[in-house]
Design a protein that fits this description.
Elements: H1 2-12, E1 17-28, H2 67-79, E2 83-84, E3 87-88, E4 91-94, E5 104-107, E6 114-122, E7 134-146, E8 150-152, E9 161-163, E10 170-176, H3 183-199, E11 212-222, E12 232-237, H4 240-261, E13 269-274, E14 279-285, E15 295-296, E16 303-304, H5 307-315, H6 321-332, H7 336-343, H8 346-357, H9 362-377, H10 389-400, H11 406-419, H12 423-430, H13 438-451, H14 453-460, H15 464-477, H16 484-495
Parallel strand pairs: 12-13
Antiparallel strand pairs: 1-10, 1-11, 2-6, 3-16, 4-5, 4-15, 6-7, 7-10, 8-9, 11-12, 13-14
Helix pairs in contact: 1-4, 3-4, 6-7, 8-9, 8-10, 9-11, 10-11, 13-15, 13-16, 14-15, 15-16
Bound molecules: zinc ion.
Zinc ion (ZN) binds at residues 34, 37, 39, 51-52, 54-55, 168.
Length: 496
Amino acid sequence: MKQKMKGSHAADGNHLFETVIGLEIHAELNTKSKIFCSCSTRFGSRPNENTCPVCMGLPGTLPVLNEEAVRLAARAGIALHCSVNRVSRFDRKNYFYPDLPKAYQITQYDLPLCESGYLDIETGQDRPNGKRRIHRIGISRIHLEEDAGKLIHPEGEPVTLLDYNRAGVPLIEIVTEPDMRSPEEAAAFLKALKSILEYTEVSDCRMEQGSLRCDVNLSVREMGKTDFGTKVEIKNLNSFREIQRALAAEAERQREQYCSGGPDSILPETRRWDNGRGRTVSMRTKEGNQDYRYFPDPDLPPVFLDRSLLCLIRNGIPELPEQKKERFLREYGLNPYEAGLLTGEKALADYYEEVVGFGVDSREAAHWILDELPRIRKDAENGEIPVKSHYLADLIQKIGEGRISRNTGKDVLMEMAVTRKTPGEIIREKGLSQISGPAELQKIIRDVLSRNADAVQDYKKGSAKAIGFLMGQVMKASRGKANPNLARSLLEELLS
Ligand SMILES: [Zn+2]
């Protein structure tokens, strides 16, 4: 009984609480070499293949800053409306852990490269007046740092293996203000951010390869209060779905804790997400910044960005998702929902424009890409689009010309993804061409009419249903290949 009371109390009291969320996102930069040495950043190399005395932290080595990493980080900053500091500096963050060969991480502390930006996200439903709800999420800073190595724990063996290929790979850490109020907002922010980093080619954002990682901070407070509650950090969440589930579960845990033990019973700690059990688990109490003993790295001079370089970076920023969406609305006659989906992912937006570029109707192209393509794409490796753009354009054109039916087109699309053949080849090999010759169709229809005398009688008595039934029989007899418009007019002709 007590359990039930507590549960219902928390559920009923949800609206009395506000959830406050801030994010720290680490994105690997798209550089060929590491941030302080010339080792490759290639993913999937043999363990420790991409290492050298610098990234292994051997005595006597000196780091040299990779200029491309600075350019990309500044690019991200400009795209996210930050001010880019003309002077920034690298610091050492000291901690001892085997993934860090130098026992310190080179990062930026009090003089980061970028500060005070924002990203607008759309949340909730469209308002009745057609205006979308925009919510501005502040970005407090973006700084450059090096990644750490990776610990591998082989199952069943009492050893830990170290792979330093990732040590020294350039990262940006993007820190938001605590401006998000629900797990859905956090997910919307991350999607928009990922999209911008992909558009600007700052990072490839492959979450499954760890090139985009997210830590979240979450606290709850009573509705109407302005002081923040005690924040809890959840580390290393690796997919949008996981992030949303972890945030929802943690908010629920904190609300219950608050109700049963008061605000002080929520401890400042770092927790991890247990996907199997669907809840967060305590890892350790939170260490303060002073524990890291930050100090300026004496091996690296301050970074000076001259005005002309900044100008160059600014001019090199391509069309961003929001601008592309506006253009798609203008040029292609799409609705905001379609334009948003297509431009949310750069690869999809580019693909769409290629298909339309072959002269295909823009609304038809959107329909096939948004409604039919996802079914075959979900099985593709790395989310690649498994059908070439000119093959899809060709397929849509063949449907438009009545060569095959829409339904057959769906099968052909599926087949193209598997065999990589052209639509023409598949239609020929499988004999899928629509029957558009009146003589052949008339024969099929006569057959159907003679076998369905009852339905013919019903039709003559004025039953509207009967013609639908007979059409169905014609399509069935032609194995779906009858041109529906022609079949219908021939059927009506023969019936009268
Ligand atoms: Zn190296």
